[in-house]
Write a structure and sequence with these properties.
This protein is of the alpha/beta class. The protein has helices at 27-40, 57-68, 88-93, 140-151, 182-191, 258-261; strands at 12-17, 44-47, 74-76, 110-112, 115-119, 158-162, 196-203, 206-212, 215-223, 235-242, 245-252. It has one domain (12-261): Metallo-dependent phosphatases (Purple Acid Phosphatase, chain A, domain 2, 4-Layer Sandwich), CATH 3.60.21.10. The chain has a six-stranded mixed β-sheet. The protein has a five-stranded mixed β-sheet with strand order 3-2-1-10-11. The structure holds fe (ii) ion (2 copies). Its EC number is 3.1.-.-.
Length: 294
């Protein structure tokens, strides 16, 4: 189905959810998000990865049942926690097998009036550059696939890209490697006039604009609906697109204003901040101990 490119007048509303981590999900948070979707009927739901905690069968069963019950078109990206750890054969040869119940939603492009949500895979089975493999890597093949999908859209279609990892290649503070091939990807997506990249993995929300050699690129991160909170309560993003404008509201269980929910720098991973200078949301809700499972 092609997007109706002529219709830019009606505002579109997306719910951007992430890091539900079934196995360590927050039952109140997922019930709240599910009810909001049923009641408010967003045009689409983007779930940017980490559906499970350990990619176990029972975690996938719960995640897939929950996703199938959502009353909206859904795209699901794959997170680093969704690749089987224990079954090495499956990790390398059939890593997506456990997604079978929702295979039509996994890495699915969503075509809305005048706007497409295009997936970008950032999770890999193995990374020869480093261990562990929890951070992102945009392979040439993954980037090619996403660019081909963008280039096939009718001219004038607005584009959002959905990925699990934020694309920032290096952490500003100490130049630590975050997402391999991230800078090149950001530059190319900015050159394609992508409106924003939606991602997860961090467990705190953000809405930042990075400068690239081919122009600015907006990066929007959703928080988590799990009990693995970093520094803010469980949340999801409500994203409203009107013409070329994007408005992001971080909605959460504790009525904290959006500005207080959003971190202003992409940190290394989902662990709570512990070092001075680590980005911490002003709500200051850093858990007294690290999340029980990483
Ligand atoms: Fe996560
Ligand atoms: Fe992750």
């Amino acid at each position: 189905m092609n997007p109706e490119v002529s219709d830019h007048s009606r505002p579109l509303r997306l719910f951007h959810l992430s890091d539900v981590h079934f196995g360590l999900e927050d039952p109140a948070a997922i019930a709240w998000a599910e009810q909001a979707i049923a009641r408010e009927k967003p045009d689409a739901v983007a779930i940017t990865g980490d559906l499970t905690m350990r990619a176990r069968h029972h975690e996938f069963d719960a995640a897939c049942a929950w996703i199938k019950g959502l009353k909206a078109p859904v795209t699901v990206e794959i997170g680093n926690h969704d690749i089987p750890y224990f079954n090495l054969y499956q990790r390398f040869f059939d890593p997506y097998r456990r997604f079978r119940a929702i295979e039509r939603q996994v890495e699915a492009q969503l075509d809305l009036p005048g706007l497409a949500i295009v997936p970008l895979r950032t999770t890999t089975r193995a990374q020869w550059q480093r261990f562990p493999w929890s951070n992102g890597w945009v392979t040439d093949a993954a980037l090619r696939e996403t660019l081909a999908a963008i280039d096939a859209l009718p001219q004038g279609t607005r584009v959002l890209v959905a990925a699990h990892h934020p694309l920032l290649e290096r952490r500003a503070r100490d130049n630590k490697l975050l997402t391999i091939n991230g800078s090149r990807t950001m530059e190319i997506l900015a050159g394609r006039k992508v409106m924003a990249v939606l991602s997860g993995h961090i467990h705190d929300a953000f809405d930042i604009t990075e400068q690239t050699p081919s122009g600015p690129l907006r990066m929007i991160g959703a928080g988590t609906l799990s009990r693995r909170i970093r520094s803010t309560p469980p949340s999801f993003n409500e994203i409203t697109i009107t013409g070329e404008e994007i408005h992001v509201v971080a909605r959460n269980l504790e009525h904290v204003p959006t500005a207080a929910m959003q971190i202003d720098e992409v940190p290394e991973n989902a662990l709570p901040p512990r070092q001075p200078g680590e980005p911490v949301a002003p709500v200051g809700a850093v858990p007294p101990v690290d999340p029980p499972v990483h």
